[in-house]
Design brief:
Homodimer. Pyridoxal 5'-phosphate binds at residues 247, 289-292, 389. Specifically catalyzes the decarboxylation of meso-diaminopimelate (meso-DAP) to L-lysine. The modification N6-(pyridoxal phosphate)lysine is found at residue 65. By secondary structure, this protein is α/β, with parallel strands linked by helices. Helices cover 29% and strands 25% of the residues. The protein has two domains: 8-36 and 297-421, Lyase, Ornithine Decarboxylase, Chain A, domain 1; 37-295, Alanine racemase (TIM Barrel), CATH 3.20.20. The strands form three sheets. Strands 4, 14, 15, 16, 17, 18, 19, 20 and 21 form a nine-stranded mixed β-sheet that branches. It starts with 7 loop residues before the first strand and ends in an 8-residue tail after the last helix.
């Protein structure tokens, strides 16, 4: 298993943030989400330092859907990043954490009336409008409240990126945004310009997630700049802001060629600056939205082994006390991870096993046909790169309680999310009789 950030091997154990996996489980229980705070901070500073230009302002926006808690909001604020939210729940979390609301960007393809009201009441900085119907809804909400709001229009540049089909977001049939190739796109833009309560600042695009090939990103930039030039000439829109989204690929499993974020951001800036001259346009600000690339490698999930079983076919299973309730990605995307027996990490990995969770589903498999150290009851299994979309997508299927989340740094662990109790599971239940 590849080690990231503060992960290290000492005394035949995996340490994270200066604390052994055994100590973390003894203190906080399992399953347990462990977040390396130092690596999260380092990644944020890397993006901020690399994505800078003397030609235009730059803004790094954390895509909070990857991982969001009130504590995470505090870390994002401490490093001066802005925040991307996609629901009323994420918006409420950010507000409750005391995050500066003028640095919040609201996304989503079907924002409710209530969510749009929250945006206006909270005084957020910008709404990314998904489509022409949403513009009409937003205009009505603004009129009712007597307020105006800055917006970007999400557009679809038609760039296909090599990633799982579920996380491609820029194909011609995507549910997100208005296509720049729509024959009515010029009229749509003019409708935004004429709107009384919204101020169209520019455009947003996002081609997908977990993309390793850098070429589609540069293709999207070029397509967007040509589109900005076209809308200036044909619709009279002077675009001031361009949001290029995120989706930069990270390492999960052997064979993943992760994007070098520092190098890539600098190349993006260089390419953007030259293209602005080429197309004779100016921009006041360019935005990117890293999420997974900030938190994924900083997360590790620790499980306790309950036992093993060899089936009649000869397949060997290792059973752990979590599963698809704390990591749905293998079942949903066929995502692959790396893992180790964390309390005996130096032993030889000669056992070919499949790691299964405790849910009543045949597809509840966390690792398929991988080599591990021999697992025994009570051992600690660590699965790496679980910082993004694991806690965020956790569920209570089978009425299984969600794990705790701890941040580790310099030998200390802080609980960011308490482990759910059985009482939490029935908190909103009402008896009928």
């Amino acid at each position: 298993m590849r080690l990231f950030g503060s992960m290290e091997i000492k005394d035949n154990q995996l340490y994270i943030g200066g604390i052994s996996s055994k100590e973390l489980v003894e203190k906080h229980g399992s399953p347990l989400y462990v977040m390396d705070e130092a690596l999260i901070s380092k990644n944020m500073e890397t993006f901020k330092a690399a994505f800078k230009s003397d030609r235009f302002q730059t803004e790094v926006v954390y895509a909070s859907k990857a991982f969001l808690t009130t504590g995470m909001c505090q870390i994002v604020d401490r490093h001066g990043l802005s925040m991307d939210v996609v629901s009323g729940g994420e918006l409420f979390t950010v507000k409750s954490a005391g995050f500066p609301m003028e640095k919040v960007h609201m996304h989503g393809n079907n924002k409710t009336w209530e969510e749009l009201e929250m945006c206006l009441d909270y005084g957020i900085g910008e709404i990314i409008v998904d489509n022409r119907d949403e513009l009409d809804k937003l205009e009505r909400v603004c009129r009712e409240k007597g307020k105006k709001i800055n917006v970007l229009l999400r557009v679809n540049p038609g760039i296909e990126a090599h990633t799982h089909e579920y996380i491609q977001t820029s194909t011609y049939s995507s549910k997100f945004g208005e296509s720049i190739f729509d024959e009515n796109i010029k009229d749509i833009i003019k409708k935004f310009i004429a709107a009384e309560h919204v101020e169209l600042k520019g455009f947003h695009c996002h081609i997908g997630s977990q993309i390793f090939d850098e070429k589609p990103f540069f293709a999207a930039m070029d397509t967007m700049l040509k589109f900005i030039k076209q809308m200036k000439d044909e619709a009279g829109l002077d675009t001031t802001v361009l949001n290029l989204g995120g989706g930069f690929g990270v390492y999960y499993f052997d064979g993943d060629d992760a994007v070098d974020f520092e190098k890539f951001c600098k190349e993006m800036i260089k390419d953007l600056e030259s293209k602005l001259d080429e197309y004779e346009i100016d921009l006041d600000k360019v935005i990117i939205e890293p999420g997974r690339s900030i938190v994924a490698n900083a997360g590790t999930t620790l499980y306790t082994v309950g036992g093993t079983k060899v089936t009649y076919s000869g397949k060997k299973y290792v059973f752990v006390d979590g599963g698809m309730t704390d990591n749905i990605r293998p079942a949903l995307y066929q995502a692959e991870y790396e893992g180790v027996i964390a309390n005996r990490i130096n032993e030889k990995t000669e056992d070919l096993v499949t790691v299964a969770g405790k849910c009543c589903e045949s597809g509840d498999l966390l690792l398929r046909d991988v080599y591990l150290q021999e697992a025994k009851e009570g051992d600690i299994l660590a699965i790496s790169t679980t910082g993004a979309y694991n806690y965020s997508m956790a569920s209570n299927y089978n009425r299984i309680r969600k794990p705790a989340v701890v941040f580790v740094k310099d030998g200390e662990s802080k609980v960011a999310v308490k482990r759910e109790s059985y009482e939490d599971l029935i908190r909103n239940d009402l008896k009928l009789y």
